[in-house]
Write a structure and sequence with these properties.
The chain is built from 11 helices and 9 strands. It is of the alpha+beta class.
Length: 380
């Protein structure tokens, strides 16, 4: 086993770290307060190649490995999870899904613009009654020969109003169950496609989360990804990779909170000495550091599995389950170490604590990850 990062990976980490400090940190509290999308920051991320990190250069991507992507996601998430989730969705769900399963025409038309950050995409699976149960799609795509008629509602869609391209999962043949589901590419502006109100969220408040409404939207047959009935398999395979991105986000949130807590503990004095010298605080820091390192190894292992062409369903689920748990526990402890200041927005840790919670929910709840893990270990 070689745990050494390559020169390229170290450069990616430094570039992402510098960008986070210089571009994401200024104004991050204000964007959170105002629920303001980081438009300028995302544009610069695209210019630097962060919006299509794993995409082949011939389609405008950076051609990097999944470990480099996880490293960048960790660094962005230490500072601004609202920005990092935009990076995650565009890379893991939209670009990867199109490059892996789309045809050449779709790649030329959509992937190149997505990979360069000229536009961003959204992945539309969840519904009011089909969140964790992805097989229960109420959104329908009726086959009309050369096109589909799309009707339904999607909920909690990241990049809901800022995206230009939407990958929509819909039921074409209910009798076939999950084998009757398709994945369609929908463009903003198509007649009958409406964007609902923005959600007022606990965390990642700078990310624009919306419901989407489809009323008799005509989607050309050439916008279907894969063969007829491939939609459910497309969604599951895409989400498996997406979990690595969210695991890396959770890791970054935890690491960011820990770094702030460690710094604060060396500055804040109580009973005549820095609080880091008190065993109660020192032991908290020891636990946080150990858990974060364990989470990092799980995340990198899942990313390595993906890069090696191994099945990463199990490693990705374990990484997301554990990293999101560590994110929640670490941010709570970071607030505790800050004491009263931890409850104040200027110290950032309360925002990281709010941001941490969603990592246990989206792209598969922790309970879903346990289903994936338990099925795999029992079967094998």
């Amino acid at each position: 086993m070689d745990f050494t990062l390559s020169e390229e990976q170290l450069m990616i980490r430094q570039a992402a770290r510098d960008f986070s400090r210089n571009e994401l940190l200024p104004g991050v509290i204000e964007r959170d307060e105002a629920q303001k999308f980081p438009t300028a920051q995302i544009k610069k991320m695209g210019e630097m190649g962060f919006m299509g990190m794993m995409v082949d250069p011939k389609y405008g991507g950076s051609g990097l490995d999944t470990i480099s992507y996880a490293i960048a996601m960790e660094e962005f998430s230490k500072v601004d999870s609202s920005a990092s989730v935009v990076v995650s969705v565009n890379n893991s769900l939209v670009c990867w899904g199109l490059e892996t399963f789309g045809n050449e025409s779709q790649k030329e038309k959509y992937l190149k613009r997505l990979a360069t950050g000229e536009i961003i995409g959204a992945f539309c699976l969840s519904e009011p009654e089909a969140g964790s149960d992805a097989t229960s799609q109420r959104t329908t795509a009726l086959d009309q020969g050369d096109h589909y008629i799309l009707n339904g509602t999607k909920n909690w869609i990241t990049n809901g109003s800022t995206a230009e391209v939407y990958l929509v999962i819909a039921q074409t043949d209910k009798e076939k169950g999950h084998k009757g589901i398709n994945a369609l590419i929908v463009e903003k502006g198509m007649k009958g496609f409406e964007i609902g109100p923005k959600e007022n969220k606990l965390g990642i408040r700078g990310s624009d989360t919306h419901s989407l409404i489809f009323n008799d939207v005509i989607v050309p047959k050439e916008n279907r990804i894969g063969e007829d009935g491939f939609g459910f398999k497309f969604a599951m395979k895409t989400l498996a990779g997406g979990r690595i991105g969210i695991a890396a986000q959770a890791l970054g949130i935890a690491a960011g909170a820990y770094e702030l807590a460690l710094k604060y503990s060396k500055e804040r004095k109580a009973f005549g000495t820095e609080i880091s010298n008190h065993q109660a605080i020192a032991f908290k820091l020891a636990d946080m550091h150990t858990q974060i390192e364990a989470a990092r190894h799980l995340v990198y292992k899942a990313a390595w599995d993906k890069d090696q062409g191994n099945n990463y369903d199990l490693s990705g689920a374990m990484a997301k389950l554990y990293a999101s748990q560590v994110a929640m526990e670490t941010t709570v402890e970071a607030v505790q170490i800050h004491g009263g200041n931890g409850f104040v927005k200027d110290y950032h840790v309360e925002r990281l604590m709010r941001d941490a919670k969603i990592t246990q929910i989206y792209e598969g709840t922790s309970e879903i990850q346990k289903i994936v893990i338990s099925r795999d270990i029992v079967r094998n």
